[in-house]
TrEMBL record:
Similarity-based family: Belongs to the kynureninase family. Belongs to the trans-sulfuration enzymes family.
Name of the protein in question: Kynureninase
A GO MF term: kynureninase activity
Cofactor(s) listed: pyridoxal 5'-phosphate
Taxonomic classification: Bacteria, Pseudomonadati, Pseudomonadota, Gammaproteobacteria, Alteromonadales
Amino acid sequence: MIKTSVASLDNNDPLREVASQFHKPEGVIYLDGNSLGLMPHCVAKRIETVTREQWGNDLIASWNKHHWIDLSRNVGDKIASLLGADYGQVACCDSISINLFKVLCAALSINSERKKILSTEDNFPTDLYMVQGLEALLGHHRCELVMVEEGQLAEAVDEDTAAVLVTEVNFRTGNIVDIAGLTQVVHKHGALVIVDLAHSAGVLPIALDKHQIDFAVGCTYKYLNAGPGAPGFVYASKRHHEKLVQPLFGWMGHANGFAFSPLYSPAQDINQMLVGTPPVISLSAVDAALDIYDGLSLDTIRNKSKQLTNVFLELLKASNASKELTCISPLDAERRGSQLSFEFEHAYALCQALIEVGVIADFRAPNFIRFGVSPLYTHFHELAEAVEKINDILVYKTYLASRFQTRNKVT
Ligand SMILES: *Cc1c(COP(=O)(O)O)cnc(C)c1O
């Protein structure tokens, strides 16, 4: 019964063929695309070209000949089309952490009379750490991190709030924050909004311009499949380009870097977010990975994502597993991103036991197991197989074996 219904879901899946553009290791069901997306074949091919032909043969001429120098901007524009942003507002560079430093400083420079950065206790730690670093650098009279619960952001904004730093999709629970509604409240108080799109970009329709978001950051190695450590992106609304200051004055952000002037003068456009020499190889990987989105609609992607998490939940409910795993994600698909997370006392060991049978999920401290689904390459039948394996491990308590108890450095 279940087998036939997942088969028909796969047959009717408008994105079914997209999976063939990715390398899937034999015998693996990959439910961790929200940590590191699968490798697209076109990325491997592009890296081959960039290294052998561009770097190998054309060497330094490639900065002009192959437009390496414009990659951050051009790739940024490609990302912009996934974010509901007009061209010229997104740059692909650095990591989320570094980009957060820049936009936090930019927000504090625009709202220089205010010091509070409001965020949530369960935001991704690096987001909170970057604010704490700024506090240490500037002093508490210039920057103060205030943390509240996710549902309390809107009511906590006040006239001393410089910016609200919010992650749209909670990395642990998958809960979606209503960015549009929150931004209206934040702007009423004269504060700015910085949105982290780490778990949104590529799986959720996003409308940064329409909702008047001030700044946004995100990465490309999760749902955008650009590979480990590929550069992130930063969005700064055009409204702010003239008056913002981001203090990482690097030559790539200079109005005319190749004049080699001893004095810094920032570019007046999104280029002012750039700092140093771009990582051309991984930036080219982002460029190639984004081509997979050509002709695909984010609404279709989002619909499949909701269907995938719904089916996964239903299958778990129909098995014994739901008695042991407590779902911490919203039960309404509209309110969650492309993942399901569960609390389970032996979450780490369960995760390890699943890896042994070819199901890759991930563990998040202290005792959560997180299953990410990627509408671009997850098939419905894979979910049915994964649930069977999860159920077996729970029934036979395989996770209690000692080999599943030792923790690796990266969990
Ligand atoms: C993955 C993730 C990060 C990672 O930041 P990096 O600087 O790219 O390592 C940051 N924030 C959120 C919400 C994330 O999910």
